[in-house]
Design a protein that fits this description.
heterodimer, A: 245 residues, mainly alpha, 78% helix, B: alpha/beta, Rossmann fold, six-stranded mixed β-sheet
Chain lengths: 245, 235
């Protein structure tokens, strides 16, 4: 009898997400909340200019990023919070294989939710454009934008899983991600270290990978996200060695 | 089937398990007794790979738990009944474990019926009593119909009907050839269920007796146990 396949563990991890309320509600929020921006623009009679349509896609990408990075962290920390790490480890003793399955499941889940959110936003924009008589301005760029946006989202969610594996504590991981993302740029600016800024602005990096704005170069963006993934992931791997309690 | 050999666990200066050795054979139910802090749970955690021994070995069919391919097909475990996501339905908890170990989906409903949680399995675990969580934990241990069962305090929180159900279940598994190791503080119940008792005190094995050597009633086991063990309050 062979050991568990990683594919088997990935399916189990996806099932874990699908069988809790937060696994449904948070992605739903990530898909619906960004629609407030284009709908609000139309209701405020600002019209649906090409700039507003492009910004709507950017807003969707950033909202999905902010929600799913937290969900990625919770995928690991909730195992410790609810002690489900005990039955998980008993069922699959190779801990690094379980962690790899969590990364893979987070990437798949983020890809699906990101795609759903961007498609819903695009359909909503098309509907609003038809209703207001404005032209649809995003159609030509979607084929290149969507894959790049999903790539950025997946990398950022992997950073969430990595931070969760290092922190093991839900509050600590979420504070580390959200407060770190908000505070570190201010610290870098206050310390007059502008060269540090690109490394502490992971959401800008997600935006740069997606291709909106001129926030930073694509290479810098990928390097920034790689650091946000690998540094906590290394700590998380070291933490796997201890006793499970 | 289960072999513990000079097993030791230290936490700094504290010796939680001190050179413990015993062997368990198939077709038996063994009670693992001792006061709080005696080292029972630590021993079970080392046996199942959750904690690393400081010295010695714990093997099942000649292999460490972590070296057994698909170990839950060999060993069914209940170590912590509270280790369930409260927002997940009982049935979904078992579906996740079945997916992890590669057990067929039909086993989920079979074991839910076996432990009497067919209806409750559709509810979220946060609404479960401790006894229902224990039953869910036993269901998880039975998912693969394994030849070895390791259960830590499975009777806590069970009502009298549940305790009788557990006794019949464990005796039935042993009758089918399973090796069952069960820790408990319920001495009267242990006396009715097990073939053999191992008593730990401060990490050391202080008694290894066949129940046939004792009279078999709870009172005699209780006197025997209390004569061998010390509690924090009794020091």
């Amino acid at each position: 009898m062979s050991t568990q396949s990683t594919g088997q563990l990935v399916r189990a991890e996806l099932l874990k997400v699908r069988t809790t309320r937060s696994g449904w509600l948070l992605p739903l929020v990530a898909i619906v909340l960004p629609l407030v921006f284009p709908v609000g623009s139309v209701l405020r009679a600002e019209g649906l200019t090409p700039e507003i349509q492009e910004t709507a896609l950017a807003v969707t990408t950033l909202v999905v990023a902010m929600v799913l990075v937290g969900l990625g962290a919770l995928a690991v920390t909730s195992e410790f919070r609810h002690h489900t790490v005990v039955p998980t480890t008993l069922a699959a003793p190779k801990r690094n294989q379980v962690l790899a399955a969590k990364y893979a499941a987070a990437a798949i889940f983020t890809g699906l939710v990101g795609l759903a959110a961007l498609v819903v936003t695009a359909i909503t924009l098309a509907g609003l454009a038809a209703a207001t008589g404005e032209p649809v301005a995003i159609g030509d760029d979607l084929a290149t934008f969507v894959p790049r946006a999903i790539a950025g989202l997946v990398l950022w969610t992997l950073a969430g899983v990595a931070v969760g594996s290092a922190a093991r504590n839900s509050a600590g991981a979420l504070v580390g991600i959200y407060l770190g993302w908000a505070v570190l740029p201010m610290v870098a600016a206050a310390a007059a270290m502008p060269s540090l800024l690109p490394w502490v602005q992971p959401l800008d990096a997600v935006g740069a990978v997606a291709g909106f704005g001129d926030l930073m170069s694509g290479g810098q963006a990928l390097a920034t996200l790689a650091v946000w993934i690998t540094a906590p992931a290394a700590v998380g791997l070291l933490a796997l060695r201890g006793d499970v309690s | 089937m289960i072999r513990i050999d000079a097993l030791t666990k230290r936490y700094g200066d504290l010796i939680a398990v001190d050179s413990l050795s015993f062997e368990l054979e198939p077709g038996t139910v063994t009670g693992f007794l001792g006061p709080n802090g005696a080292g029972k749970s630590t021993t079970l955690r080392m046996l199942t790979g959750l904690a690393k021994p400081t010295a010695g070995t714990a093997t099942i069919s000649g292999r460490r738990y972590s070296d057994i391919p698909k170990p839950q097909w060999t060993v069914g475990t209940l170590l912590d009944a509270s280790a369930v996501h409260p927002g997940r339905r009982g049935r979904d908890h078992l579906r996740v474990l079945a997916a992890t170990v590669g057990a067929p989906a039909r086993r989920v409903d079979e074991v839910l019926e076996q432990v009497g949680l067919q209806q409750a399995g559709r509810r979220r675990v946060k609404g479960y009593s401790l006894g229902m969580r224990q039953r869910l934990g036993v269901a998880a241990a039975l998912l693969t119909d394994p030849p070895v069962l390791v259960l830590d305090e499975p009777a806590i929180g069970l009502d009298p009907e549940g305790i009788r159900w557990l006794r019949v279940l464990l005796r039935g598994r042993a009758a089918q050839g399973a090796t069952v190791l069960v820790s408990s503080h319920l001495l009267a119940e242990v006396a009715q269920t097990v073939d053999r008792v191992l008593i730990l005190d401060r990490g050391r094995l202080v008694a290894d007796r066949r129940m046939a050597e004792l009279s078999g009633d709870g009172k005699q086991l209780e006197d025997f146990y209390l004569g061998l063990t010390t509690t924090e309050a009794g020091k």
